[in-house]
Design goal:
Layout: E1 18-19, E2 25-26, H1 73-78, H2 80-89, H3 96-126, H4 133-168, E3 185-190, H5 203-209, E4 213-214, H6 215-221, E5 228-229, H7 232-250, E6 254-257, E7 261-263, H8 264-269, E8 289-291, H9 296-301, E9 306-309, E10 315-324, E11 343-353, H10 355-375, E12 380-384, E13 396-404, E14 409-418, H11 422-427, E15 429-432, E16 451-452, E17 454-462, H12 463-473, E18 481-482, E19 496-497
Parallel strand pairs: 6-10, 9-15
Antiparallel strand pairs: 1-2, 3-12, 4-5, 7-8, 10-11, 11-17, 12-13, 13-14, 14-17, 15-16, 18-19
Helix pairs in contact: 3-4, 7-12
Keywords: Aminoacyl-tRNA synthetase, ATP-binding, Coiled coil, Ligase, Nucleotide-binding, Protein biosynthesis
GO molecular function, one term: ATP binding
Enzyme class: ligase
């Protein structure tokens, strides 16, 4: 299995449905919604396009949204019942009825602007040629009235569009039809729990006894949920990162190291909420910057405002970054030790592709994650996660949960998600389909309109979670921990953690 950087993946078979970033399933004879944000509806009014600077990652305007997404408002109106039901399934507070009401108002005010603009132009034409001074003065006064009226209407239109954008950006991606509603579905179980013949310890007790994890120093220096990895603990972190990178690169992923600080608007474009209550995001005071919670954000942002060639897709990247999360609301045994911390290292997989490639690529990401954790010798489950558990960008998500005997439960190691064009409509990442299909009979090839790419992401290695799983599953009766064989070359030959 590999992830080459060109379109060599199987296409979606005839009749298979595709899903857009608003989740509208296409196929089975149903006409596709407009993918171009300036496509005209039956009314002749453009579908409330974002400006050319819609995905500019600067400081957000004081009276508008942080950015303007290329959202298909006409499609929301035409599929309102489906969008309502999807918001309900995903426990979303979005109000699609309000969005449609705002869109209808936007269309009507746009028409009023057009009429006022036409009247002003007609009035200007009437002023050409000779006429009585009183008649010219009357036209000048009428022109000023029309200019004032047009300014008022355009101001109202801007206010409507800003509100419409803010409300529409709350609507989550539509959900894959096979996604369960409220409970995860077991897809596969790999391996079996180890049968220990001695009293087991959790990773906190093991880490402190072996002098490889220091929570006390972390708390003194930085606060709770911070830690130091020492000795073989530090080597284990680096080994996991290097091994995972090597595996990903061997599959065709391009290695990338990413910034840990990004603009808050880029975070929002990717579906995160830096200003929400109980946010997981650390913001920098008096700055538009935030600390990233995943390399997914800078990887996605690196392609914003770009038009890609379809021949270059899929683009598969493996990124390393330090992740920072507030873990607001997380407490108790579920977050014990390294399982839930404020800062950690992570290797992230990120893909840009065509809509025809994304469903198959999601399966390939899941298969790759399975290969990684099986090679480490872990026992884990693959789960198809329910709609109620999906973040706003994801159309479908699969989680890997490993057995952690010291914690006496399964714990999430990773997830893999298909976000379809939810993120690309916000980041303005497009591709131009091949023109071959548009050429016939030797005629000159036509330039096809651009479409939004699909994006996928997957965790290859969240270091603290894998450290927990390795320490607890491979502990020995004498208190040592055996290093999984694939990691030994990356540990400088160390095959066992023991205290000297």
């Amino acid at each position: 299995m590999s992830f080459p950087h060109k379109s060599c993946f199987r296409l979606v078979p005839a009749g298979r449905q595709l899903v857009t970033g608003l989740g509208f399933r296409l196929g089975h004879g149903r006409p596709a919604p407009h993918l171009c944000p300036r496509a005209l509806g039956a009314s002749g009014i453009a579908d409330a396009p974002a400006s050319s600077a819609g995905a500019t990652a600067g400081n957000p305007p004081a009276d508008g949204p942080a950015f303007k997404a290329y959202i298909d408002f006409k499609a929301i109106r035409e599929n309102l019942e489906e969008v309502r039901d999807n918001c309900r399934r995903r426990n979303s507070g979005a109000d699609p009825d309000l969005v449609v009401s705002l869109y209808n108002e936007f269309v009507e005010v746009s028409r009023e602007c057009d009429r006022a603009r036409a009247a002003r132009n007609e009035n200007s034409k009437s002023m050409k040629g000779q006429m009585e001074p009183s008649d010219r003065q009357a036209l000048i006064e009428k022109g000023q009235q029309l200019k004032d009226e047009l300014g008022r209407l355009e101001g109202r239109l801007t206010d409507i569009q800003n509100t419409m954008q803010r409300e529409a950006q709350k609507i989550p991606n539509l959900t894959h039809p096979q996604t369960p509603d409220t409970e995860p579905v077991l897809v596969k179980q790999v391996g079996e729990p180890r049968d220990f013949k001695f009293k087991i310890k959790d990773h906190v007790e093991l880490g402190e006894a072996l002098d490889i994890i220091d929570f006390d120093a972390g708390a003194q220096v930085s606060g709770s949920k911070f830690y130091y990895l020492r000795n073989e603990g530090a080597l284990l972190e680096l080994a996991l990162v290097h091994w995972t990178f090597a595996k990903a690169v061997s599959k065709g992923f391009v290695p990338v190291t990413t910034p840990d600080l990004v603009r808050s608007s880029v975070l929002e474009m990717c579906g995160f909420q830096p200003r929400a209550d109980n946010t997981q995001v650390y913001s920098i005071a008096d700055s538009p910057l935030c600390l990233t919670g995943t390399a997914e954000v800078p990887l996605a942002g690196s392609y914003m405002n770009r038009i890609l060639k379809s021949a270059d897709l899929p683009i598969c990247m493996v990124g390393f970054g330090r992740c920072f999360r507030t873990e607001a609301g997380a407490a108790g045994m579920a977050g014990k030790g390294l399982y839930r911390v404020h800062q950690f290292s992570k290797v992230e997989l990120f893909i840009l592709c065509t809509p025809q490639q994304s469903e198959d690529l999601l399966k390939r990401l899941v298969d790759f994650e399975e290969e990684l954790y099986a090679e480490l010798g872990l026992h884990f489950k693959i789960l198809d996660m329910p709609a109620s558990d999906l973040g706003a960008p994801a159309e479908r998500k699969f989680d890997m949960e490993a057995w952690m005997p010291g914690l006496q439960r399964y714990g999430e190691l990773s997830s893999a998600s298909n976000c379809t064009d939810y993120q690309s409509r916000r980041l303005n990442i497009r591709y131009r389909p091949d023109a071959d299909a548009a050429a016939s009979g030797g005629k000159k090839q036509k330039k096809l309109p651009t479409e939004f790419v699909h994006t996928l992401n997957a965790t290859a290695c969240a270091v603290p979670r894998l450290v927990v799983a390795i320490l607890e599953n491979f502990q020995q009766e004498d208190g040592t921990v055996v290093i999984p064989k694939p990691l030994i070359p990356y540990m400088g030959g160390v095959d066992r953690i023991m205290k000297f």
